[in-house]
Amino acid sequence: FFFFFFCIVGGAAVLGVGVWTLVEKSDYLSLLASSTFAVSAYILILAGGLVVVTGFLGCCAVIREQRSCLSTYFFFLLLIFLIELVAGVLAYVYYQRLSDELKEHLNQTMTENYAQPGKETITSAVDRLQQDFKCCGSNNSQDWTLSVYIRSERSGGRVVPDSCCKTITADCGRRDHPSNIYKGGCITKLEQFLADHLLVIGAVGIGVACLQICGMVFTCCLHRRIKMDPY
Fold it and tell me: Where are the membrane-spanning stretches (predicted)?
C-alpha cells in the first residue's frame, strides 16, 4: 500500500507539473511557432491522471487479491510508461530546437502581429513578456523600428510599445531613452524560461517513469504470489 500511495503522489506531481506548465505564463505559448511545448504538457497531464487512477486500481487489486486486476494494473502502468516516454522525447527534441525556433520566429511574430486586428492574444503576450522579463523587442529595442504597428499612424508617434517602459504611463513609448525603457531583448530570457520548464518536465517524467518500472516489477512478483482466481 505504501508503494501505491507513492504512485498516487507521483501521479499527482506529474499532473501538477503539467497544469503548472500550461497556466504559468501560458500567454507565451502564442509566441511559439510550434505546439510541441504545449503538447508535452498535455501529455504529462494525461499521464498524471492515469497514474492517480491506476494507483487506486492497484490498491483494489491487492485488497481483492485477483490476478486479473493485477494484469489490468500492469497494462496501465506499461501504457503510462510509454506515454511519459513520448512526452520525454518531445521535450528533449524541442529543447534542442528551442533556440533556433526563437531566433527564426520570435522577432517576426512580434513585429508583424503586435497590435494588429485579430492578434489580441499575441499583443497581450508580448506586453506581458516585456513587462515580466523587463525587456524590449526580440534582440533589443531597435527591433521595433521595423514593426508594422510602430510604422503606422495608430502608434501615435511611439517608437516602442508602452510595455517597454520601466514605468508604464500614457504614451510613454514615445521616448526611447535608457532611463525610460528597457533596452535589452527578450529572446534570451524567454529561451531560458522555456528551457527551465522543459527541464522540469523531463526530470519529473523520468522520475515517475522509474517509479512505473518498479511498479511493473512489483506487480509481476505479486501476480506470481497470488493464487489463481477460481472465478
Answer: 40-63, 75-95, 198-222
pLDDT at 25: 61
Three-class SS of residue 181?
A: strand
Measured distance CA(65)–CA(222) in Å, rounded: 9
User: Taking the alpha carbons of 173, 174, 177, 179 in that order, is the dihedral positive or negative?
Assistant: negative
The answer to whether 107 touches 129, Cβ cutoff 8 Å, is no
The residue behind cell 499575441 is 122
Amino acid at 39: V
C-alpha–C-alpha distance, residues 106 and 31, integer Å = 7
Whether the predicted pLDDT of 228 surpasses 60:
no
Is the pLDDT reported for residue 231 higher than 50? no
* Integer angstrom CA distances of residue 176 from 21, 121, 157, 173, 191: 34, 25, 11, 7, 25
The mean of the pLDDT values for the chain is: 83
pLDDT of res. 230 = 46
For residues 99 and 188, is the Cβ–Cβ distance under 8 A?
no
Residue 229 φ/ψ, nearest 5 degrees: -70, 120
CA–CA separation, 226 and 95 (whole Å): 45
pLDDT tens digits, 21-47: 777 767 777 888 777 777 777 877 887
Parse the chain into domains and list their residue ranges: 1-64, 90-225
C-alpha cell at 91: 521535450
Look at the chain and count its residues: 231
CATH topology of domain 90-225: Cd81 Antigen, Extracellular Domain; Chain: A (1.10.1450)
